[in-house]
Specification:
11 helices, three-stranded antiparallel β-sheet, AraC_XylS_family_regulators, 8 strands, about 290 residues, alpha+beta
Length: about 290
C-alpha cells in the first residue's frame, strides 16, 4: 500500500516525523501484512544548516532506520538522555535507532535521507512465519554503507517517481524485500531451509494468474493475490517467482502490455481509454512504457 495512512496514530514516520524533526517529509510507502503496518518509508529533505536538539521522542516499540542519500556534516543522537553517537555521515551510510529508548537528535548541514520505520511486531510476525527465532534488535555500524539498501532505496524512489498507482505491485514487493533485509541483515534472522523451498501449488499458480488477468485495471496488491492463494505476501512473492520464473509485478506488466497491444490492433479506442483499461493510470505513463 502506498501512502494513505494516518502516521500520527500509526507511528513515528510521515507527518509525525516531519513535525518532530522540523523537516519536509514525503510519505512514500506503507507496507501492510495481515492488515497491520509492517514498514513505512519517508523521504526527508531540509536545506537549513543548523537544527536545535529535538525533545525526547515518546517511547514506542519500533525501529527508525535512517539511510543518508546525501552527505551530512553532523548527526548526533541521545538515548534516554545519554549521548549515543555524534559525527559526520557519508552518503549511503545508515543509522539505526530503537524508539523504545526515547531518542533525541541534532543535525548540522542540509538533510537528504530516507527513514524506514519498522514496528517490532512486524519483525516478530515475520520471524514466526518463517519458523525462526524472534529478532531481538536491529544493529548496523553507523559509518558503514549498505549497498543492498542503497539498491532497494533507488528502486523505491524510481518506482514512486514514475507512477505511484501503476507500480503498486512492484512497490509492495519492495516493501517486503526491505522488511526481509532488515530482519536478516540487521536482525540476524535465520530461516530453516525448508521455509525457502518450493513454488506454488498448481491451483495457486492458476488462481494467481487468473486474478491478475481479471483485474488489469485495478490497483492490485501482493496481499490481494496472496490472500486468494491462502499465503502470506512474502511467501507468495517468493513461490510465484519459483513457479513462473518471473516476479509477480513482471508477470502483471507483461499481461498489461499484451492486452494493450491487442486493443491497439483490434479496436479504435483512444490511447487514453486503452491506458485505463490496461491499468497504466494515464496516457503519458502508458506511452512511456509502451515505447521502451
Amino acid at each position: 500500500m502506498i501512502g494513505g495512512g494516518d502516521s500520527t496514530v500509526l507511528g513515528f514516520f510521515g507527518s509525525r516525523l516531519s513535525e518532530h524533526l522540523g523537516m519536509e517529509a514525503d510519505l512514500l510507502l506503507e507496507t501492510r501484512r495481515h492488515g497491520k503496518l509492517a514498514l513505512a518509508a519517508t523521504r526527508l529533505t531540509c536545506s537549513r544548516f543548523v537544527f536545535a536538539r529535538t525533545p525526547p521522542m515518546p517511547s514506542e516499540p519500533a525501529f527508525s532506520i535512517f539511510h543518508q542519500l546525501g552527505e551530512l556534516e553532523r548527526h548526533s543522537c541521545w538515548l534516554a538522555g545519554r549521548p549515543k553517537f555524534s559525527g559526520s555521515f557519508s552518503a549511503g551510510t545508515v543509522s539505526v535507532t530503537d524508539l523504545l529508548d526515547s531518542p533525541q537528535w541534532e543535525y548540522r548541514g542540509p538533510v537528504e535521507a530516507l527513514q524506514y520505520y519498522v514496528p517490532r511486531r512486524a519483525l516478530d510476525d515475520f520471524a514466526r512465519e518463517h519458523d525462526a527465532k524472534p529478532v531481538e534488535t536491529l544493529r548496523w555500524s553507523r559509518d558503514r554503507r549498505d549497498p543492498c539498501l542503497s539498491t532497494i532505496s533507488s528502486l523505491l524512489l524510481s518506482a514512486i517517481e514514475e507512477d505511484r498507482t501503476t507500480n503498486q505491485l512492484f512497490v509492495d514487493q519492495i516493501g517486503l524485500s526491505l522488511l526481509a533485509h532488515f530482519a536478516q541483515t540487521y536482525g540476524g534472522l535465520r530461516t530453516y531451509d525448508g521455509a525457502l523451498e518450493g513454488g506454488l501449488a498448481p491451483w495457486q499458480e492458476r488462481r494467481a494468474k487468473e486474478i491478475m488477468r481479471a483485474r488489469l485495471a485495478s490497483r492490485l496488491t501482493i496481499a490481494d493475490v496472496a490472500a486468494e492463494c491462502r499465503l502470506t505476501p512474502s511467501h507468495f512473492a517468493r513461490s510465484f517467482r519459483r513457479s513462473a520464473g518471473i516476479a509477480p509485478h513482471e508477470y502483471l506488466s507483461r499481461l498489461r502490455m499484451d492486452e494493450a497491444k491487442r486493443l491497439l490492433t483490434t479496436t479504435k479506442l483512444p490511447l487514453a481509454d486503452i491506458a485505463l483499461i490496461c491499468g497504466f493510470g494515464d496516457q503519458s505513463y502508458f506511452t512511456r512504457v509502451f515505447s521502451r
